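In response to the reviewer comment on reproducibility (Comment 2.3), we provide here a single inverse folding case reported in full, input and output, so that an independent group could reproduce the run without further information from us. The structure tokens appear first.
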């Protein structure tokens, strides 16, 4: 059986979601795919860090965080390593980068990913920052070092959007991608559709954990813009930046706008869009009125969806969760199995 030794940088929602999958289904996955995923290191800014070259028990990691809020009481041969030291000194062959998203500098994740690639580690990340800002550089570096980068969780969490586009629709020629890629704003718009004001809908999204205390990144469209850059650069061979995305959030939409659209058989959605034209690839994020029969119009609440417009198949629409600890943890599993398919000896 092939074994992959993983170092996790960041042990928040996604790291714990992934550990839960390994705790509950790790053995079954190993049998099914003949590939064992072993966590050998976890390094988290506040929760602490542990490393055991022979493997850490996912159950013990989760118990420690659930009972004491950190990893400091766990017994492990090496403790207290920061991310840089963990990448440098652990025996991991895959870096799983799960630290905070920063869409301005991409740091510290860009540095983590770069360091790991240069050490010859494969990369899996659900962090949009390094991928939206530095994907062309990082993927070139990965090719140079003969390692793979898995990024499924950066768009629509575990719903396999990027893999569908990269692998199964590549030969169908994708001309345009339109999507609802931010669950927070879609939830707010759905609530407004049912009569809530923007302020009430936002407050409810915050109570349910869909929106952050500072919702700017979601409601002003920055999060969706990061994802549209990833879709453009990964699936359409573009090399656009966040500054190239024409971006408008949902804060200007009024209950009157929503009601008028409804009366005319339409619905407002925050649509992220990227399309090929004769003069290049163009990307935007903006509130858009869709006819009620459009496949994206019926996607409500925090659910995400994308429609790929392809030359050979026409429209293909994918609907699924866009966030959540288990859904995003699943993206890590998918990426690891994708790496395994690429690197395992052909039999
Ligand atoms: N949650 C989702 O549904 C979802 C979906 C798709 C993508 N993502 C992305 O996946 C990543 C992880 O998300 P999450 O929900 O797990 O976030 P989270 O709960 O905030 O966890 C992030 C963790 O990273 C730690 N961290 C930050 N900087 C670090 C560093 N330099 N070294 C070591 N640890 C560091 C934080 O430590 P402390 O808090 O202890 O300081 C925190 O525990 C983010 O980039 C997020 O945008 C999340």
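Designed residues, in position order:
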């Amino acid at each position: 059986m092939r074994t992959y030794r993983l170092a996790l940088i960041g042990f928040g929602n996604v790291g714990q979601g992934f550990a839960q999958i390994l705790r509950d289904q790790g053995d079954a996955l190993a049998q099914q795919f003949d590939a064992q995923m072993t966590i050998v290191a976890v390094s988290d800014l506040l929760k602490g860090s542990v490393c055991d070259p022979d493997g850490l028990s996912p159950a013990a990691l989760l118990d420690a965080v659930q009972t004491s809020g950190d990893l400091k009481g766990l017994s492990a041969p090496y403790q207290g390593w920061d991310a840089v030291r963990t990448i440098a000194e652990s025996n991991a062959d895959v870096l799983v980068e799960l630290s905070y998203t920063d869409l301005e500098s991409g740091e510290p994740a860009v540095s983590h990913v770069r360091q790991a690639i240069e050490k010859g580690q494969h990369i899996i990340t659900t962090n949009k920052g390094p991928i939206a800002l530095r994907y062309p550089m990082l993927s070139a570096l990965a090719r140079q070092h003969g390692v793979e980068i898995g990024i499924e969780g950066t768009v629509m969490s575990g719903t396999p959007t990027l893999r569908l586009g990269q692998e199964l629709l590549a030969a169908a020629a994708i001309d345009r991608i339109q999507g609802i890629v931010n669950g927070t704003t879609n939830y707010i718009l759905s609530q407004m559709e049912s009569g809530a004001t923007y302020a009430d809908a936002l407050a409810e999204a915050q109570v349910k954990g869909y929106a952050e205390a500072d919702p700017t990144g979601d409601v002003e469209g920055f999060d969706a813009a990061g994802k549209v850059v990833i879709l453009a650069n990964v699936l359409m061979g573009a090399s656009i930046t966040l500054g190239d995305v024409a971006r408008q959030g949902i804060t200007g939409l009024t209950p009157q706008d929503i009601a008028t659209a409804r009366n005319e058989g339409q619905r407002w959605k925050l649509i992220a869009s990227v399309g090929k034209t004769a003069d290049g690839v163009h990307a935007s994020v903006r509130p858009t009125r869709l006819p009620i029969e459009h496949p994206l119009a019926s996607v409500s609440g925090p659910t995400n969806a994308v429609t790929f417009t392809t030359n050979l198949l026409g429209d293909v629409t994918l609907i699924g969760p866009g966030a959540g600890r288990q859904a995003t943890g699943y993206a890590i599993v998918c990426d690891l199995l994708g790496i395994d398919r690429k690197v395992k000896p052909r039999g």
